[in-house]
Amino acid sequence: MARRTPRTVLVTATLGALVFAGAVAGAALTRTDPAPTPPPSAAGTTAPATTSDPRADGCLREPCRVLRTATLGDTRVELVADSGAKTGRLRIGGPGTSRVIEIGEIGVLLPEGALQCYPASISACLVRAEGTRGQTGKVVVGRSGKWSSLERAYLSTAGYIVLNNIVADSGPEVVTAQCSSESCGTVHAQVFTLVGSTVGCTRGYSSVEALPGYPAVEVAASRLRPCA
């Protein structure tokens, strides 16, 4: 287990401030929620459901559909998509309470594996979509029942994004697979903190499936190198 470094403490403090600010902005929605779920490989279960009220689920174009669901302890997380699956929102909360967080248009939401949630002191949920340049991911973070969306969208030119704890800090990192060349003959993993800074990259591998720990890619932080 890696020791907590000054950089790790700074990232944790930054995330705490970000989540608190997002919670204040959303206070008018009067909705809350807690934390904990299974590891990153448990991306959620399909829950096909529809509703005729777009205000209730955040859809912009009807019919609205719950595309995927996950749980963090007693908190239920639902990914709600519009009819074209190009706009989505996360509905977070237990019975009688919910908070809707907009994901926006990041591509076409994946019918399978669109949602992954990772429990930690700072929990996170990742929403994935296919776009013209590869797979895109948006992250929503939560701490002490306060949730907010990160502005950055993560891109994987090799079609793989996942949440996993790489640095052994209080929250997961975003692990993306990138083509090492235009032909994508080799790929490497690029790791980001939740606030968007690069942790490092792995060496090249023959395919995404060959990355260490696939399908939940995991690599020791000490083995990461500066990204080219």
TrEMBL record:
Keywords assigned: Signal
Signal peptide coordinates: 1-27
Superkingdom assignment: Bacteria
Signal found in the keyword field: yes
Ranges for region Disordered: 31-58
Bias (Low complexity) ranges: 42-53
The protein's name: Uncharacterized protein
Naturally occurring in which organism (per UniProt): Actinokineospora fastidiosa
